[in-house]
Amino acid sequence: MGHSGFPGPASPGQQGPSPTSWSRWHHRLHRSLLASPDLLPSGASLLVAVSGGQDSLCLVRLLQDLQRRHHWSLQVFHGDHRWRPDSAANAAHVQFLCAMWGLPCHLEAAPGHLPGEAAARQWRYGRAVALCRRLGCSQLVTGHTATDRAETLLFHLCRGSGSRGLGSLRPQRQLAPGLQLTRPLLHFSRQDTLQCCRALKLPIWPDASNDDQGLTRNRIRHRILPELEQVNSAAVDHMAACAQQLAEESDLLDQLAREALAAMGTQPSASLSPQDLAALPRPLASRCLAFWIQDHTGWRPDRQRLNQLLLSLRHPGTMAPLGRGWWLRWRRGRIHLQRGNPETACPPTTHGSRFSPAAPQ
Q: The whole model's pTM is what?
């Protein structure tokens, strides 16, 4: 028995799941898709990422059952990181289920050792994007849930992220031109997907790495979230709703910052008026400074660096390191971006506030 209470993986001699009647899980997803028609548009070509765990099995089964109502084209992607001894059997399990359900399945195996979660995620999304392009799919669909969103909020909160990071794991974001990453189960909790799998008799493949307490996300999942749910049983839902609100507010601030920068006339110039920045509310000034630096250097400072820069701009003559070989300098009434050390290229004419150069990000 797996930790989910399901029997072991399906074997070729087993019968596939019987045709499913309309359940509350189907109704819930169908209703949310009707309320947000741009999430998974009717007739879209979908590539569904399926690990074999409860979230992705719930997702692909519900999508297949709703397919006749939304007229999607459905295909499945499974990425084998080769981290676990049973990874090949896991892939075969997904492939068997897809064959039993009549879904095209595309398996990808990592070419070598992937050093960590970030590298594995980058490889998986890279292969999925390439496959979407080859198949002509406009949507890569994943089974992330409200529980994942709550865990992500807590993870980024511990790292000191601002509203942009706290509002991550959005329902949809662009992966590449013409390709969206879509998460239609963000209003389901992990408990919901487990109950759905039980109701539909879906054979979950247990992933032992989810129990590895050496991974930060697993410690949040197994230690912190249960404690928070003891405080309030709806904690996951509240945190997921908070993440959504932060995402929407972050998008609004981004839009206002872009409009403010356009009004300053900064687009063709790598200089900016500190007086214009000082006239803005601090959250908006921070976004403007971040976008201005990103537009002219190709990278975005973190929240701590932006706070340091805003403080330093109170002092005429400021010369501050940004990292990656870039410096910010106040000269002739404006702040400028320079590559290389401006002290050697052009000595400052007035004293400035300085802080130690940051490590490249």
A: 0.82
